[in-house]
Amino acid sequence: MNIASLGYLRSLLAALAAMSVGFGSAAAAAEIGQIKVARGQVSVERRGDSLTGSVGMRLEAADVVKTGADGSVGITMSDNSLLSAGPNSILALEHFDFDPATSQGRFDAQLQRGTLAVISGRIAKQSPQAMTVRTPSAALGVRGTEFVVSTHE
Amino acid sequence: MNSELRGAAIAWLAVLLAGCATPQGAVVLLPEASGKDTAVLVTQGEKVALLDQPYAGAKLSSTGPQKYSSSAADVQARFGGALAALPSRPTQFTLYFVEGKDEFTDESKKIIDSIFAEIANRPVPDVLVVGHTDKVGTDAANDVLSRQRAEVVRRALVARGIAPGNVVAVGRGKREPMVPTADGVAEARNRRVEILVR
Fold first, then answer.
1. Which of A20, A36, A89 sits opposite B170 (nearest CB)?
2. 3 state SS of B85
3. Which residues pair with A50 in a beta bridge?
4. Quick one: pLDDT at residue B18?
5. What residues pair up with A82 in beta bridges, in sequence order?
6. In which region does residue A124 sit, left (phi positive, over 0), alpha (psi from -120 to 50) or beta (all else)?
7. How many Cβ contacts (< 8 angstroms) between chains A and B?
8. Could you tell me what percent of chain B has a pLDDT over 90?
9. Contacts for A150 with CB less than 8 Å, ≥ 6 apart
């Protein structure tokens, strides 16, 4: 390899490193999951705004997802956790961080009202203490993997 | 108050308290398809219930979780709406590469068709492409090569119509071999790209 191509290789490596850093920080700061299923009335409260929840919408930490009397919503998180809420539900994605390289992270959600189905993902698999689903009256430690929870009879 | 009366009063109070246990919902552990260990620990104040069998349930109340035996029909009646909205589970594919290159092996070309079938099945597919190498060569070289392999797959997906914003390609170099080997060992099963469609 001559000097010129070595220089090229170095700048290529630097560019790739910069790109991977960019990807990492963008993923950590913003997107934590995506709405895959939306039926009836679905909304997302984000920083004081109420947005219409639709299929394909990217979700962020601290988003609160709401469904109306005819609504339901299905969400895939970036650690492969699946969540779905039935009608008249309020689901707060309170805290989510996830390192895809190591599967380390933390996921805390709160079902404030309604019904919720959960299939836990890589965070809970890697560390059984790392995922919690709360309701107004209970805390669920998720050792894995599939369960349902409601806030009313 | 004599002791008989006191006993009756206490019994009456217990009935009253039980009657006042406000329902606060329910939790049911579902069967695990892969048969692996699964459990949910339900905590209400100082009261705890461990659900570790299929259809083990707990009714939540102001007096703590009360375990009960649920069933498929009970779950469907209470949670049918939520369950019907569950997204499809992620599907993983693995493509293998020619040694030292970013070219697919011939068998892997066939797998690409099934990847597209899976993508087409999903309303809003997002795809994570993770490149890996075997343990021949330096970390620096393998980071570049694994990234190139992932990029080849990403470009192939975009060329066939996947929105570029829905495909993320990353390279892990030789850090996560499928088959553990000593450094410097050429191992075909480690020269791969994993594609997660979700």
1. A20
2. coil
3. A45
4. 56
5. A76, A119
6. alpha
7. 166
8. 56
9. A111, A114, A115, A116, B25, B26, B27, B78, B79
The answer to whether the CB of A94 falls within 8 A of the CB of A108 is yes
Identity of the residue in A82, A143, A149 whose CB atom sits nearest the CB atom of B41: A143
Please report residues of B whose CB lies closer than 8 A to that of A84: 82-87
Q: What are the b/e assignments for B150-187, b being 16+ CB within 10 Å?
A: bbbbbebbbeeebeeebbbbbbbbbeebbeebeeeeeb
Answer yes or no: do A39 and B85 touch at CB < 8 A: yes
Partnered with residue B91 across adjacent β-strands are B197
Q: How confident is the model at residue A124 (pLDDT cuts 50, 70, 90)?
A: very high
Label residues A14-23 b or e (16+ Cβ within 10 Å = b): eebeeeeeee
Angstroms from B190 CA to nearest CA on chain A? 17
Nearest CB partner across the interface for B87, out of A76, A139, A144: A76
Interface test with B, best of A59, A148, A151, A152 (most B CBs within 10 A): A148
Neighbours of A143 (CB within 10 A): 21
- A116 and B82: CB-CB below 8 Å? yes
Query: Closest-CA residue in chain A for B49?
Result: A140
Q: How far out from the chain centre does Cα B170 lie?
A: 20
* Residue B33 banded pLDDT, cuts 50, 70, 90: confident
Tell me how close the Cα of B29 comes to any Cα of chain A, in angstroms.
4
Whether this model's ipTM surpasses 0.90 comes out as no
Q: Which residues contact A33 (CB under 8 A, 6 or more apart)?
A: A58, A59, A75, A76, A77, A78, A81, A93, A96
Rounded Cα distance, A17 and A4, in Å: 20
A10 touches chain B (CB under 8 A): no
CA dist., res. B155 & res. B167, Å (int): 9
